[in-house]
Amino acid sequence: MKSLTTALVVFLFFSISESAASIVNTKHNLSVTSSAGNIKATSETEVCVFCHIPHFSQSVGKPLWNRSMPTTDYIMYDSDYLKRMGYPAIASDLGSANDTPGALSRQCLSCHDGTIAVGAVSKLRRDYDGSSIIDMSGDAPDGTIPDTAVGFIGTDLSNHHPVGIIYDSTVTKVFGDGGVRTMELKATPDAPIKLYEYAGYSGKYVECSSCHDPHKDNSKFLHVESGANHGQNFVSTCTSCHVKTDWVGSVHQNPPLNPLYTDPEVIAKYGTGAVGELGCANCHVPHNGEGVGYLNRQVNEQTCFQGAASDESGAACHGVGGAKDIKSILSRAYTHPVLAEDNIPGTQHTNLDTLYGTGNPDPLAIKGIDWGTNKHAVCMDCHNPHQARAGTHIVDGSWYGQPGASTNLVSNVLKGVPGIEPTWPPEWQQPTTFTTMESSEKEYQICFKCHSYWGMGDAINGINTSGYVSPSDGVTPLTDVAWEMNINNKSGHPVVINQLARTGSYAPQQLSDAQLLTPWRENPGLNTMYCSDCHGADNELGGDPKGPHGSNLKYILKGVNQYWPKKPDGVTLYTMDDIGTAGDTGNMCKNCHDIRHPHDKWRQQMSGRGFACIECHLTIPHGSPISRLMGYETFPAPYNYNGNSLKMTGWKKGFYDPNDVGTRTNAYAPTCGGGGMCHNSNAGGYDQNLMP
User: Fold this and answer.
1) pLDDT higher than threshold 70 for residue 344
2) What is the mean pLDDT of residues 382-410?
3) Euclidean distance between CA atoms 372 and 455, whole angstroms
4) SS3 (DSSP) at 642
5) Which residues in 549-675 belong to E strands, given as ranges?
6) The pLDDT of residue 679
7) Any residues with CB less than 8 A from the CB of 344 and at least 6 apart, and which?
8) Is the pLDDT higher at 660 or at 630?
9) pLDDT band at residue 1 using 50, 70 and 90 as cut-offs
10) Has residue 296 got a pLDDT over 90?
11) Which of 535, 568, 690 is closest to 626 using CA atoms?
12) How confident is the model over 564-588, as a mean pLDDT?
């Protein structure tokens, strides 16, 4: 018996000594011998006693636990995303008794939540008869961990990685198109990450010790310590559980040129300043994340601007002066209103907002995408940071891409973004039924999430009925772009479909090559285009990040010619007299159209009469119930500029003969009211007026 007892004592001695050897140089060495932390005993030399005791251990906690468990009620992690996914909630009885979810985490929290004195242990080996308080230095006046300490967690766990939560990789969300969003979790975490089972509970649970080993002599006590620096260990810890779709090879996992942080705090903490090495750590933190729903480092877009740095100036991200400065573009006169919510707590949204638009509210009463209650523009409305890759559809040195039959497909930077596809009603009616898409296939499906009934609600004759106005002037009513792009309309820019596929059009459906400019004149009628071919940064050729983030021009316009319907003076309208003016390069239409054809023959006959473009064409040129984006004098503003610009009362489309430059034929047959510029009452068969 004596030899057995001796063996047990030796076993315990070496077990505890082994732990002490690995912990001795860390902040978890709270003895007076510690050189790693500011909080330590004034005289106690024992290392393990702050957590463990070989005899008379606590009945709650293991192994051989020597501290009282906190009795505090915690504010647990909660997430709109998890709720929408239907992920199992955290157990309501977290840590209330031994072997219930969270008991292991409460052991850590017995120091880190700030409710129990750091030196408050149950027993000392020299004093088994009563509780003991070890005198400490560096602690708070009440003996607890100071709330300024790096290791302070507190009792609000809502901005920390969830603990006491079941690990379930089987949860899915199905979109209307049949696309499936998963939890992007591995079926089983990679070793050495651990999960825990509890008596009376099914499944396996995540606790503090899933990622941390308090005895490890490495930065942040991570189980994973195989990397060359803390940054690599951080990423490997995350990816041991989380397997984000198409993350490998994405622009944030493997950024071009691998830019560097200049913030010395980042380099000191992670052992590297390379954005590519930091991976998940660029945007997320497991503790004290300000962007609560996703554990983002900062609130909303500030995470994108600042990354892991203490401010934007030290970051190689999307802030002012960053590797790809988006914030400066968003600060221009006309932008998507991303900065309007910046740094406002409680305004976070999820990338499942797309599921809940007008007429389809979220049954959980979480934010959707409808403007009535949840209008927002955040980076992840248009980008999936885990799937985005470098490269847009735009050819280097050009404002545009190479057109083709399917050039409205999403660019690399838009990969993996949810969207909507309308069910198209008869011509010049509002689409009100949509199919939600787990990943948009075409760019317009992303834009329509907001610029349609799904976001804006009801409209009459294309104009929203809720009083939303253009931020470009604060007056012009906003219109339903999906209504205007309806494939059954008589005309429209070929964003959704090409001209030859437009069901509401009649021959000749396409423009001739003489009416178009390179690159659009190749294969006329078969090309599609992007919303971002007209809307984007005003200096994309000069280095602005491509896309409709913002512009110094109204309506976020872009291109060599950047004005419509007025000239740069903001007063004078473009007219037919400007068509042949060599020095006039401002008219937006001239980016794609050779507008000498067929307008030149009319200009020659009516020179000096100053007919404005918008006397025939809609001011908002997305689409029209009349061929060739024409409009009638009965149309309402804003299609009819100021309600009185349009002059035509009838229009019939015909074939354009580029050789017919001096005569008027029935090829184009307008009729104008009030003695207007042109009459052709013999043509007949005019496009029906579908507006009052």
Assistant:
1) no
2) 87
3) 8
4) helix
5) 550-551, 623-624, 648-652, 669-672
6) 55
7) 299, 300
8) 630
9) very low
10) yes
11) 690
12) 82
For residues 615-641, average pLDDT:
95
Whether the model pTM is above 0.85: yes
Rounded distance between C-alpha atoms, residue 408 and residue 658, angstroms: 29
pLDDT of residue 603: 67
Residue 633: CB partners within 8 Å, gap ≥ 6? 640, 646, 647, 648, 649, 673
Q: Are 140 and 146 in contact (CB under 8 A)?
A: yes
* Domain-wise residue ranges, the chain: 347-559, 560-692
In degrees and rounded to multiples of 5, residue 558 shows phi and psi of -150, 170
Total Cβ atoms within 10 A of residue 220: 18
Residue 125: pLDDT band with limits 50, 70, 90: confident
- Nearest alpha-carbon partner for 511 in 527, 495, 487: 527
Question: Quick one: which of 99, 109, 72, 123 has its CA closest to 214?
Answer: 109
Q: Residue 433 half-sphere exposure, CB side, CA atoms within 13 Å? A: 5
Residue 268's H or E segment, with its range, is helix 264-270
| Cα–Cα dist 491/481, whole Å | 13
Which range of 144-153, 520-529, 669-678 scores highest in mean pLDDT? It is 144-153
- What whole-number distance in Å separates Cα of residue 307 and Cα of residue 598? 53
Give the Cβ contact number of residue 243 at 10 Å.
Answer: 17
Residue type, 111: C
Residue 191's alpha-carbon distances to 218, 223, 231, 241, in angstroms, are 17, 9, 18, 10
Spatial distance between the Cα atoms of 411 and 594, rounded to a whole number of angstroms: 28
* pLDDT value at residue 6: 37
Band the pLDDT of 341: cuts 50, 70, 90. Answer: low
Give the length of the chain.
692
Q: CA dist 169 to 87, 92, 153, 290, 324, Å?
A: 9, 21, 27, 26, 35
Phi, psi (deg, nearest 5) at residue 386: -90, -20
Three-class DSSP category at 354 = helix
Of residues 371, 477, 470, 483, the one with CA closest to residue 434: 483
Alpha helices (runs of H) in 358-404, residue ranges in sequence order: 371-374, 379-382
Chain mean pLDDT for the chain: 87
What's the CA gap between 366 and 436, in Å, rounded? 17
pLDDT digits (tens, 9 = 90+) for 369-381: 999 888 888 899 9
Nearest to 245 by CA among 183, 193, 169, 155: 183
Which of the listed ranges 273-287, 506-520, 593-607 does the model predict with the highest average pLDDT? Answer: 273-287
For residues 655, 656, 657, 658, the Cα torsion angle rounded to the nearest 10 degrees is -160
Query: Taking a C-beta distance cutoff of 8 angstroms, is the pair 240, 193 a contact?
Result: yes
User: Is residue 143 pLDDT above 60, yes or no?
Assistant: yes
Dist. CA 380–CA 628, nearest whole Å? 35
pLDDT of the residue at 678: 59
In whole angstroms, what is the distance from residue 428 CA to residue 153 CA?
A: 58
What does the DSSP assignment read for 110-156? HHHTSSS-TTEES-BTTBTTS-EE--EESS-TTSSPPTTSTT---SB
- Mean predicted confidence (pLDDT) in 449-467: 96
Do residues 416 and 182 make contact, with C-beta atoms less than 8 angstroms apart? Answer: no
CA distance 105 to 210: 9
